[in-house]
Specification:
This protein is of the alpha/beta class. The protein contains six helices and eight strands, in the order αβαβαβααββββαβ. The protein has helices spanning 2-9, 25-36, 57-68, 88-102, 108-121, 159-173, and strands at 12-18, 40-46, 77-79, 126-127, 130-131, 134-141, 146-151, 181-186.
Length: 192
Amino acid sequence: MRTLLAIERADVCLMMIDATEGVTDQDAKIAGEAHEAGKGVIIVVNKWDAVEKETGTLEKYKKEVYGRLKYLSYAPMIFISAKTGQRVTKLFDLINHVAEQNAMRVITSILNQVINEAIAIVQPPTDKGKRLKIYYGTQASTKPPTFVIFVNNKELFHFSYERYLINQIRKEFGLEGTPVRIIVREKNEKDV
């Protein structure tokens, strides 16, 4: 309960992982709550000084963490030691960066340029001869960045195409450390 209240009050959540234990079930549950709440997230691996290192240890560890927390692939990861103070000061710059990303506003005309370029690269899906048409998009809110995409038929807007558009938006605007939400509306649909 206290964890959920803390997540609710936060702009950026630090997902603290003990390097000697790895990602626990409790870590994964809390990370999921932060993601669902639309909070900026930074994965902080503490006690990095206690881990035996050899060539490739860092990359292998990152792969394991992201493998366990697939839905946080957008979250930056930093390796620290609270005991020695290693990289702790860099954490504060990263917190400010993620908070800015979470509150970022995107100009509508530039967003639509990115959407149109994405459509030109990968055509929207079709179903039974009907093709999805994306008319335009606009940013509805921040924290997390939420975009409304207006289409001809919501049923044709497949989850995989949504993920593709989110990846294209991230590629253009960064949005590191923050979830990105897309709301799909049919062009004639009024605000609900």
